[in-house]
């Protein structure tokens, strides 16, 4: 779809991703990459004694899954895009923990799509990351991406 066609969908849900597992291996790899080895993420025995009942994903790991989930059907493909870059986020809230082994998926609602200059579009979406079988989402945020066509 063209950027103009997408802009006509402001206010609509524009995509829902496939499910992705939040495995302990993924959590451990994120801990290694970031240096955040807090026991609630990586020590299964100690984490069992917390209110979580086991290890949980880092909130920032869940947030960093946005590009992956977008590529898995969350964000529609825009015709002619040469590149897309993250511009930032607003109103990010980590609402519920994602326990190791749970599956998550993202829902994208388009709130703004504007051409900032010829060939450069800025998209703002409300993104909700759902946890399979849970009432509360893992996170909600307003995410801004710039596309160059």
Class inferred from helices and paired strands? alpha+beta
The residue ranges in which pLDDT falls below 50 over 5 or more consecutive positions are none
Please state the average pLDDT score: 97
Element pattern in H and E: HEEHHHHHEEEE
Return the CATH topology: Thiol Ester Dehydrase, Chain A
Count all strands and give the number: 6
Helix content: 25-40%
CATH homology group = Hotdog Thioesterase
Q: From the coordinates shown, what is the CATH architecture?
A: Roll
Proportion of beta-strand residues: 35-45%
What is the global morphology?
elongated
Tally of structural domains: 1
CATH C-level class = Alpha Beta
**Gyration radius over CA:** 17 Å
Main beta sheet = 6 strands, antiparallel
Distance between the termini: 12 Å
Q: What is the number of helices?
A: 6
Structure in words:
This protein is α+β, with helices and mostly antiparallel strands. It has one domain (3-148): Roll (Thiol Ester Dehydrase, Chain A). The chain has six helices and six strands. Strands 1, 2, 3, 4, 5 and 6 form a six-stranded antiparallel sheet that branches. The radius of gyration is 17 Å and the shape is elongated.
């Amino acid at each position: 779809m063209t950027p103009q066609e997408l802009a006509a969908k402001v206010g609509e849900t524009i995509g829902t991703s496939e499910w992705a597992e939040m495995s302990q291996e993924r959590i451990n790899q994120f801990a290694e990459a970031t240096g955040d080895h807090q026991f609630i993420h990586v020590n299964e025995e100690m984490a069992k004694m917390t209110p979580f009942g086991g290890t949980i994903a880092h909130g920032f790991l869940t947030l960093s899954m946005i590009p992956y989930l977008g590529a898995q059907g969350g964000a529609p493909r825009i015709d002619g895009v040469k590149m897309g870059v993250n511009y930032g986020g607003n109103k990010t809230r980590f609402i519920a923990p994602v326990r190791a082994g749970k599956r998550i998926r993202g829902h994208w609602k388009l709130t703004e799509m504007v051409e900032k200059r010829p060939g450069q579009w800025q998209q703002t979406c409300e993104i909700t990351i759902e946890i399979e079988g849970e009432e509360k989402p893992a996170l909600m945020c307003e995410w801004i991406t710039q596309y160059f066509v």
